[in-house]
Here is the input.
Amino acid sequence: MTAIPRRTRRTERPTPVLPTLPDDFAVRVIAWQQRYGRHHLPWQNTGDAYRTWLSEIMLQQTQVSAVLGYYARFIERFPTVQALAAAPADDVMAAWAGLGYYTRARNLHRCAQIVVAEHGGVFPRDPDVLTTLPGIGRSTAAAIAAFSYGVRAAILDGNVKRVFARAFGIDGFPGDKPVEETMWRIAEAVLPPAGGIQPYTQGLMDLGATVCTRGRPACLTGERACPLESLCEARRTDRVMELPLPRPRKAVPERAATVMMALHDHAVLLHRRPQRGIWGGLWSLPLVGDMDDALNAHPKDAATVRDAAQTYGTVGAVEPAGELTHTFTHFRLHMHLLRVDMTEPAALEDDWRWVSLTQLGTVGLPAPVKLALETLLQPSLV
Here is the structure.
């Protein structure tokens, strides 16, 4: 008789012990926010979940100063969630161009369509329901619910993680799951009563953005008072600049691409990128071959570029035009630029179009592509 080995019982990871949490944490944050916090941002004090949601999506990985102009233009162009849902995708991407992280824009458009189609044009007040919508994670859902409906829910964005790491002396990279889980437990434990949730949520955001900053925390510069300084573990142990611990460093992957600018009759050829992948759904200059991890595969030689360009029409001169390097979040891209003069364009499919040089400013172009065009053309033409 063959013995059946017993299944080893999985050892459950013990729940980390929380640091001692002061009873007046939320009280301090609220009192500071009411006196020193930000009160006049354009999306504040509106009671409009659409504007709150839009601002929260724009502010993901982007500073307030960079968002203000985009937000104003976006609201003017799409004043309601219904207007955004009904807009062509190209219009949405053009309005977003320059803010980066373009998946946010695609999710924004899709989310608006779902809110209109499935929720009667009204954003849900339940954070758990909000997280089912495209582009809305747990922290963003809590912020929308708190600011729009006064729902008692905990946020945990990058600024808040920095505040918690310093205030409570939390070691470890905040992106690691065990560390993040500990921070979520703290975020839930220090919430104020529902009536104070809006100033408290705004106060945490403001503290991280204006006082407990990454490079120049106010407690070290004396520029502004911090309401948490007397209880801050990092301040007590002289670890303010050490916490939170950074992401473990990895070598930045390198990729290369040969980028073609095809010109005909003062117009440039653009190609809509596939929805998935880099610059998804945006208009771009065509690539010759693929983006390649093998750096020596680029630049493509003039004969290869000429053969590729013949798909778009009759080819005239082909000239190399230099190289640009752009660093993304997860890799660095070396773009080898070539200028191709077309004597006669061919008929092309819908994902291709010739755009007048004077109209390029109306097209949503990724920043690196715009930079490539500025390099290839006279600056006054872009």
